[in-house]
Write a sequence for this structure.
């Protein structure tokens, strides 16, 4: 079978013939039908997320169950599924606290590039191939933990279903689960890419009355307004903080979301907040990056800055719910797909377009 593999840092992703071992106990073999190309994948290619290589990339995907391992009962062969890249263990400290997105076991396995048992399923001859976030969706088939597959309705197209596996769930979840945006509130979204557009439409669903989209690429603003932005700010031309204050009668916004992962935009997301405002960092910055904010403003203005990982979601509940919203024409997914590639061969072109910052999402159909 073929898979898109980052063989070493500093190289292009290559399409390799690899071997895949059968699923073990509580694992599932999935035939991948569609995979989204996300900034997190690009971060690995650019060495901003230092993970072991060679590695099968891709974490946003949907497909069909091909085979189940011993003990798997919630899916069967032929089921349509979306992959969940935080397959929680259900036993660690954070899982028991109800924070499955912070599962210690899943996070450790993702850092090692293995499945939950510490081993891999991809090989090229005798060489072990790691897989990104226990998914590896840039492949014809993959093996994932049982909790890594969420059964979905069969009338949803695979490309749109794939987008819910990361971009839509992360963006909408940050609004609904992390920030709990209230009706009538004001929101700033810094970064109007694929995830940022989902934050924007999440804020609209939550009833925000003023949604300010901030970016440096003018071409993104028409899409941002289509997804629900009421105002736009071009950070390449205007002072972002002054512009947001002007749009909010000098007070700042109730909620802000940073969806880029850069220290300067994270600081902006804090500084555009009004008193008692809540800023949510969704963008993934390199591990060695620090952010500077004014210490006095924390107690004097009562601001809060927090993070959101995978939309602080419960994928087994939230993924089917988002797909129901899509089928009811209340959630935009079709419009997120800027370009479709009909083989894995398009992956490097998709990365180039993503790095250029002028698309929402590219889809690989496999």
């Amino acid at each position: 079978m073929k898979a898109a593999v980052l063989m070493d840092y500093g190289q292009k992703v290559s399409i390799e013939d690899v071997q895949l071992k059968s699923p073990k106990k509580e694992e599932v073999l999935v035939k991948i039908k569609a995979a989204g190309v996300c900034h997190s994948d690009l971060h690995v290619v650019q060495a901003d997320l230092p993970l072991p290589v060679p590695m099968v990339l891709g974490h946003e995907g949907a497909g069909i169950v091909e085979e189940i391992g011993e003990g798997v009962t919630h899916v069967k062969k032929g089921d349509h599924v979306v992959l969940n890249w935080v397959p929680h263990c259900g036993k660690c400290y954070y899982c028991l606290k109800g924070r499955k997105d912070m599962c210690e076991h899943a996070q450790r396995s993702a850092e090692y590039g293995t499945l939950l048992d510490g081993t891999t399923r991809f090989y090229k001859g005798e060489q072990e191939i790691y897989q990104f976030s226990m998914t590896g969706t840039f492949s014809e088939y993959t093996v994932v933990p049982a909790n890594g597959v969420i059964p979905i309705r069969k009338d949803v197209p695979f490309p749109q279903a794939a987008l819910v596996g990361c971009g839509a769930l992360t963006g909408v979840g940050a609004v609904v689960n992390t920030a709990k945006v209230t009706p009538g509130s004001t929101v700033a979204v810094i970064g109007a890419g694929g995830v940022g557009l989902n934050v924007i439409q999440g804020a609209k669903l939550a009833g925000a009355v003023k949604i300010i989209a901030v970016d440096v690429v003018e071409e993104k603003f028409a899409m941002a307004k289509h997804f629900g932005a009421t105002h736009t700010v071009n950070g390449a031309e205007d002072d972002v903080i002054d512009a947001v204050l002007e749009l909010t009668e000098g007070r700042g916004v109730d909620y802000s979301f940073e969806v880029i992962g850069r220290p300067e935009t994270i600081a902006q997301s804090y500084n555009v907040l009004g008193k008692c405002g809540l800023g949510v960092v969704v963008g993934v910055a390199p591990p060695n990056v620090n952010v500077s904010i004014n210490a006095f403003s924390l107690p004097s203005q009562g601001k809060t800055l927090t993070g959101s990982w995978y939309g602080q979601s419960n994928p087994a509940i939230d993924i089917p719910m988002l797909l129901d919203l899509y089928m009811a024409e209340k959630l935009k997914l079709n419009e997120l797909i800027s370009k479709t590639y009909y083989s894995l061969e398009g992956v490097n072109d998709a990365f180039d377009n993503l790095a250029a910052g002028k698309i929402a999402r590219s889809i690989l159909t496999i």
About this structure: Residues 197 and 223 are 8 Å apart (CA to CA). The mean pLDDT is 96. The chain is about 30% helix and 25% strand.
